[in-house]
Amino acid sequence: MNKIITISREFGSGGRELGRRLSEILGIAYYDQEIITEIANRTKLAEQYVDQIVEKQPLVSFPIHIGRTLYPVPNPVLEQRQSILLQHHQIIREMAQKSDCVIVGRCADYILKDFSPFRIFVYAELESRVARCSSRCTENEKYSEKELRQKILSVDKKRAKYYNSYTGQCWGDILNYDLCVNTSQQGIKKFSCMIAGMFEQIK
Amino acid sequence: MNKIITISREFGSGGRELGRRLSEILGIAYYDQEIITEIANRTKLAEQYVDQIVEKQPLVSFPIHIGRTLYPVPNPVLEQRQSILLQHHQIIREMAQKSDCVIVGRCADYILKDFSPFRIFVYAELESRVARCSSRCTENEKYSEKELRQKILSVDKKRAKYYNSYTGQCWGDILNYDLCVNTSQQGIKKFSCMIAGMFEQIK
């Protein structure tokens, strides 16, 4: 079976960078935004729209028309959402079947449960995440520390809501991961090398 | 500065075994019960008594004798406890100064904060911990699953109480560790090799 590493991460913790570096050092595939692009290709929907759906709560309830009928009636928006979620699930499984890979986010740890992926959760102290986000802001994106803190907590809240709803598990609960990595004190570059070293042992 | 790895662990998660294996693979010192033995040697107190004190809540309050005086009066039991806690602190720092090492438990992550240790927390699902404890019971120690579960939760509670009281931090809060390792699915032998591989990268 292929070596699958899934990465869940708190916003601003550097989980995406850690995943990318890990895939480069190990010389294996890396999937992140590529998943959204592929869903958009297959469903012929705009990438931005797909991204929005995959970030939202995935639970789909059938519309009930009071006084008319209890049977579901065709609803194009609902059908689009269902199609996106179906592709999301299918594409991640296809990627895992193809070769060894690192997959960032998108509930891959849950979708690939039967592949026994190595599940990593990347986190950091809030102050460290604020500093990281601040250093990555461009000239046109000037946020105060307070605004960055709010943005970080708000993105985490959305990720948790999506993950909990999709998986029935609790986002960030350490029991859902094999390894939790705190990037507050160790640099991400150094940590990526260290974690790659773990996988070199089980080649 | 020496490479110091501290290991905190949930009861039954195999943290002690992981620490011992890690020290063997890396060829560095390992301290666990050795700390208690050394405190007992220096204080001339029984090892079992020292062990009991180091597992208890370390906060020492002065006895107040109502109606007599508010000044502390000599109290041999209190003095013994203070001496044990002082030695505990001192011995751990001496060990860290001596050479690279793995130190299991005993708030070493907190005591050695200024040594920037690499702080590992080892945990596992309760069912996996029950199975591990059960497989290690001797013929004379037959516990039911329910009893084992109670024992595990009770030991964790004591560890948390001691750690929280000694450090003012929260035992098991992932922000207090650099790496959290879930031994439920990966074997401890394999995981020890993998983690050793991390440190081989930064030699």
Keywords:
homodimer, 203 residues, alpha/beta, Rossmann fold, 5-stranded parallel β-sheet, 8 helices, 5 strands, 52% helix, 11% strand, globular
What does the model show?
Two copies of one chain form a homodimer. The first copy, chain A, has 203 residues and is of the alpha/beta class. Chain A has one domain (4-200): Rossmann fold (3-Layer(aba) Sandwich), CATH 3.40.50.300. Helix content of chain A is 52%, strand content 11%. Chain A has a five-stranded parallel sheet, with helices on both faces. The longest helix of chain A has 23 residues, at 76-98. Chain A binds chain B through residues 116, 118, 123, 125, 174-175, 177-182, 184-186, 190, 193-202, and chain B through 116, 118, 123, 125, 174-175, 177-182, 184-186, 190, 193-202.
Question: How is the quaternary structure best described?
Answer: homodimer
| Uncertain stretches of chain A | 61-66
Helical percent range of chain A?
A: 40-55%
Give the largest interface pair and sizes: A-B, 26 and 26 residues
In DSSP terms (H or I, runs of 4 or more residues), the helix count of chain A works out at 8
Radius of gyration of chain A: 19 Å
Strand order of the largest sheet of chain A: 2-3-1-4-5
CATH class of chain A: Alpha Beta
Report the CATH topology name of chain A: Rossmann fold
